[in-house]
Amino acid sequence: MATTTNYGWTTPDDTALVKDGAAAIRTLGSSVDTTTKNLNPETTLGDLAYRSSTANVKTRLGLGTAGQILAVNSGANAPEWVTPASGGMTLISTTTLTGATTTVGSIPGTYNSLFGLVYGVTNATANGYMKMQANAADNATSTATEGTVVGGDATRVFLNPNTTLLRTDANNVFSFTIDNYASATNYKSVYWTGVFVNSSSVNAAVVGGGGFRTNTAITSLVFNNSQGNLSTGTVLLYGVK
């Protein structure tokens, strides 16, 4: 019996008898059916088909989940759905500033750096300096000289080192970045900016840099004001990949 070029389907020879026509058609139909199924293994909406290791046979790849992308597997021999690595910023926590100290704790060590936004800051007692402490509370009174000269010491930085905040004005806002925060062997660089109303009721801006001289991973941040309890304010802390 003759066969087709591409898939090897059996067909009648030119000299085959007419009485064999029904059997020949049935054989050819079965071959077409088998080949078609091998080339179309999809069973569900969204399925994809790709060539398997067997010639003329495809393999079904089921639809992935929302947000996944198509990639090549580790063996570089088949496609697969994968969840892309996350990027950008992820909100870790939202914390209200209140009392003598406010702690933002349980900071995971799974990001490259931290970004924070501190806004709406007011103080219940007197105009003062806003401080950020790594891993522990520090209630020592800061001074303009200290803040200006060092911008931060072993484990704290002053977000407004040059002039005190007007304690009753909720327009006070700061942002900060802490790099290498999860390292247990290196110091951590800290950068911050702020726009606030100072003790003379004048709008002021600050851009600063310093560092936390600690070889311990930062797992919490403590905020407080040098001149008394915090009344209002919010800390948004983000992890950055």
Describe the structure.
11% of the residues lie in helices and 39% in strands. The chain is mainly β and 241 residues long. It folds into three domains: 1-39, no CATH class; 44-83, no CATH class; 89-240, Jelly Rolls. A hairpin with a 6-residue loop joins β3 (48-51) and β4 (58-61). The chain is rod-shaped. The chain starts with a strand and ends with a strand.
Mean pLDDT across all amino acids: 84
Give the biggest beta sheet. Answer: 6 strands, antiparallel
Strand content: 35-45%
Provide the CATH top-level class of the largest domain.
Answer: Mainly Beta
Structural class: mainly beta
* Helix content percent band: 10-25%
Gyration radius, rounded: 34 Å
Number of helices: 2
Q: What is the ordering of alpha helices and beta strands?
A: EEHEEEEEEEEHEEEEEE
List keywords for this structure.
rod-shaped, 241 residues, 16 strands, Jelly Rolls, mainly beta
